[in-house]
Specification:
The chain is an alpha/beta fold. It contains 8 helices and 10 strands.
């Protein structure tokens, strides 16, 4: 038996991968982040045979103790994280302890909220001649993040910026970005993507904090910044060379 760290996706149960679903169906224990998953996900989990534990009510040591207990009983344990485990999931510290205890584990990728938001917007984040780089980051707050100077350096690159965990710091973020980007830079705020409460709000950088405040958004939102967002409302006429009839390999 082993521990599976499972990306549960952005909130829509239909976006849980086939592999993740197979693990959930066979798990004896599921530990899920109750404050970060949608009601539909929780309803789905309650329909499974596994015993459920809400990690938002537990300390790290308690989570490890639960995992150890079920592994000793030779049962599959699924430790769920919202979105994809590779981005801001806080699994690193848990895996360090799991390794020390020689508990076998496997990470199952999930659909990140950033990818789900891009799909909802009908947008490609990497557009030829506009942006070939996507940067996932977060603005510095009480629990860490990139500093103002680091954010300014990242913003100076011709990239699409995606800010996680930064909605509560939006005024400082806006002022920092305005030091290096045009006030007319397109932005999008993706709130609770694929949840029933989903909102996607478009605007420009100079109105970012206003839009967050007007829509009473405090958390569970991504902030997209970059010229690639112009493709949502404009025809940019930027074609990939790969599909050019005159393109030749080698």
């Amino acid at each position: 038996m082993k521990l599976y760290v499972v990306g549960i996706g952005p909130g829509d149960p239909e976006l849980i991968t086939v592999k993740a679903n197979k693990i959930l169906q066979s798990a004896g224990c599921i530990i899920y982040p109750g404050s970060l998953v949608s009601k539909k996900i929780i309803e789905f989990l309650k329909g499974l045979k596994a015993e459920l534990y809400d990690s938002s009510k537990l300390k790290l040591e308690e989570i490890i103790e639960i995992i150890e207990g079920y592994i000793k009983k030779r049962q599959i344990v699924a430790r769920l994280v919202s979105g994809d485990p590779s981005i801001y999931s806080a699994i690193g510290e848990q895996i360090e302890i799991i390794k020390e205890k020689s508990i076998p584990y496997e990470i199952i990728p999930g659909i990140s909220s950033a990818m789900a938001a891009s799909a909802k917007m009908g947008l490609e984040l990497t557009i030829p001649e506009i942006s070939q780089t996507v940067i996932f980051t977060r603005f510095e707050g009480k629990t860490g993040g990139a500093s103002k100077e680091e954010i300014k350096k990242l913003a100076s690159v011709r990239a699409t910026l995606v800010f996680f965990l930064s909605a509560s710091l939006v005024h400082e973020l806006e002022q920092t970005l305005l030091e290096v980007l045009s006030p007319e830079t397109p932005i999008a705020i993706a709130y609770k993507v694929t949840w029933d409460e989903e909102k996607i709000i478009y605007g420009t950088l100079k109105g970012l904090s206003r839009l967050i405040k007007e829509n009473e958004i405090k958390r569970t939102a991504l902030i997209f910044v970059g010229e690639s967002l112009r493709a949502i409302k404009e025809k940019l006429n930027k074609r990939s060379r790969l599909y050019d009839r005159n393109f030749k390999w080698g």
